[in-house]
Amino acid sequence: PKIEFDWSLREGPYPDMLDNFSVRWRGYLVPDKDSNATLFTATDDGARLWLDGKKIIDDWTPHPLKENKAQVQLKAGVIYPITMEYFETNGDCSAHLQWLRSAMDRKIPIPTRYLYPCDPDDPEETAALRGP
């Protein structure tokens, strides 16, 4: 329901999957208010992020924990396709998707009430999420 993962040198998403893997999360972001938001990825290693079919973060390189950000204009009630890709080479691994919606807020993981899964068997939905 949200992208907020930290694994140590001895852990991974599955017992036999510690290094050399990639993940793609796809779904929809539906904000409840208009905002000039900042979306953040914090990953060890690479990350790419698409919003509404546009690649807004592209850091597809191996590196220690690193934060990337993109400014976006969000409208309340609009359904935005969102895709995050992540890869891990070796060592520690982590993947986080966060947002900051105003100067009065603090940066937090995007709450699950704004994220919705897509149906991977629906060709129209998956085509919209592939990005350019």
Radius of gyration: 15 Å
Instruction: Report the uncertain regions.
Output: none
Distance between the termini: 25 Å
Query: How many beta strands in the DSSP annotation?
Result: 10
Q: Assembly state here?
A: single chain
Order of helices and strands: EEEEEEEEEEH
Shape: globular
- Structural class determined from secondary elements: mainly beta
Helix content: under 10%
Mean pLDDT: 86
Your description of this structure?
It is a single chain. The protein has 132 residues and is mainly beta. The strands form two sheets. Strands 1, 3, 6, 8 and 9 form a five-stranded antiparallel beta sheet that branches. Strand 4 and strand 5 form a beta hairpin. The protein is globular. The model has no long low-confidence stretch (mean pLDDT 86).
Task: Give the SSE map.
Layout: E1 4-7, E2 21-29, E3 35-44, E4 47-51, E5 54-59, E6 66-74, E7 80-88, E8 93-100, E9 108-109, E10 115-117, H1 123-129
Can you tag this structure with a few keywords?
mainly beta, 132 residues, globular
Quickly describe the structure.
The chain contains 1 helix and 10 strands, in the order ββββββββββα.
